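[#protein-structures] MJ: dropping Flavin-containing monooxygenase here for a structure pass
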Amino acid sequence: MGLENKSVAIVGAGVSGLAACKHLLERGCRPVVFEAGDAVGGVWPNAMEGTRLQAPRHMYRYSDFPWPDSVTEMFPNQRQVADYLHAYARRFGVLDCVRLGHRVTSMDYVGVAEEEVVAWEQWAGCGEAFGSGDGEWRLTVADAEGHTEVHMLDFVILCTGRFSNYPSIPKFPPGRGPEAFDGKVIHSMDYSKMGSEKAKEMIKDKCVTVVGYGNSALDIANECATINGTEKPCTMVVRTKQWIIPNFYAWGINISNFYLTRFAELLIHKPGEGFLLSILATVLTPLRLMISKFAESYYSIPMKKHEMVPDHSFFEGMVGCMLSTTPKDHYKNLEEGIIVIKKSKTFGFCKEGVLVEGESTLVKSDIVIFGTGFNGDENIKDMFISKYFHAIVVGSTSTTTPLYRSSLC
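AK: finished. structure tokens for Flavin-containing monooxygenase:
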């Protein structure tokens, strides 16, 4: 079926949204891309200045658009990634399709009764992406000034990602939340949006406490250490230990060859896998354990000094996306006391700072920054008016075919 006369919307102009738009343009369809932010590239245009890729450069690229020769680092920085994505969009004419500052506030499938939709065994009863032509998607879109408009479309591609707009904030007992604190409390998302110079000015000469031990938390703590040094050490409250690595070389061997290839898919059991794949994953279990122990023997050396080795295996950390690459001087900053780690599952706020369970003294703070991640499914959960589609998108942990990292794209 030709796409020339089909109306398609793409929600989000990040890595997936840009590729989806380029794919459609090549097939004669001119989609409209709604991007809530002020630039294409997803989280990268507003990421912190010190943020780098978590995957090697050659594994984070479009197959038809190589990195420029000027980018030689294994882990390109924030500016390089943002420029690369913008260059991709410009090269393939995607920029002309993007409407920046436009957020999709709701979407609904109209023209077909919901009872009929529920009864379908295949989409539209025939399995065709564009259906029989009876139904269409109704999107309500708001611009930066709050003005809304309605679009009727044949197809919608959701590329909203996991790392924007809906921060994950820990819950606290009454009287122990941020309201009890006299200082400033923000999330890493807001810190990034401030811009580099304004963010650095905010933390300068301040006692900063960072909650979390993932990518954003590590980057913010490193920035605080660089700006304030030993005069105002940065405290990290770590609730869950995670594997952190400086690079992908363990004892001189590139472990990405074991983990970031199709071969790695054979090492794990998957939902809905067949008999042969199940047997293969079981037979390869000793090899999986051996590779994991090999990596752990190297990466755990500096982590043991600070009692930060996690309970789960390195393999679990890799396949579960529970692994971060460390900023260059992270362990050096720990040794020099520029960054101080407090390990506890529970903490709360008081007037002067943070109370960490198990610690006899409070952590005096001027600013507390949550590097606690995002609620990825919130991006799309409330977008659907229909409870039926809402349930499909949110899904459950027991679904036979779960969404990849809980996302549509």
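MJ: nice. The chain has two domains: 8-163+376-406, 178-370.
AK: one more thing. Residues 398-409 have pLDDT under 50 and may be disordered.
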